[in-house]
Amino acid sequence: MSGGVLILVGLLLGFIGVRSLRLTMLLVGFGAGWFLAEVFDAQRTTALLIGAAAGVVLLFTAILAARIIFFVLGGVTGVVVGAKLFYVVDRGDSSLILAFVFIPAVAISGAFLAERWREKFMRWATAAAGAALALSGLGLFAPKTLGALANPDEGAAQAVSFLAWVALGAVMLVFQKRQAAKDDD
């Protein structure tokens, strides 16, 4: 079940992106909570509950902190992208210390980039995060055939997972740019 939920959340995030900031907050919060629960090997149900709680907390936090919305959104989107990138490059000997350094570094970078370039950066970031969630969901949905998309453990699987992530993210980014152009007309 969680694979299907991740696919849905990832597709919504990747294709809707920054057009709805509140929906983006809810979806990015869910993704960050779910990935962080996965880093600590939580059960699927627990990961879903943590993801849902994180989504709601982030939504309310963003509403209260509207002045720093892009900084917060960029940071949490950075958590999703950083966690997925960590899973893609990890060779199975993951260190929690490395995860505690790498993921926040990507999150902080995302926060500053989002504050600086706002919608332009968030289109890219939500496409990357949405693709990460959707592909991880596919890997959980069909672990025997697509499991490497969720957690690749060898060089070839890592390369395929990364290329699939980039390709789906690019499709989502192009879609968002076209929608933004239509909105501007």
> Number of helical segments?
7
Cα distance spanning the termini = 40 Å
Amount of beta strand: under 5%
Structural class: mainly alpha
Query: How much helicity do the residues have?
Result: over 70%
Tally of discrete structural domains: 1
**Which segments are poorly predicted (pLDDT under 50) over 5 or more consecutive residues?**
none
What's the β-strand tally? 0
Tell the overall outline. Answer: globular
Using only C-alpha atoms, the radius of gyration works out to 15 Å
| Main sheet makeup | none
Order of helices and strands: HHHHHHH
Oligomerization state: single chain
Structure characteristics:
single chain; 185 residues; mainly alpha; 7 helices; 0% strand; globular
Explain this structure to me?
By secondary structure, the protein is mainly α. Helices cover 86% and strands 0% of the residues. The chain contains 7 helices and no strands. Helix 1 (2-16) packs across helix 5 and helix 1 packs across helix 7. The mean pLDDT is 87.
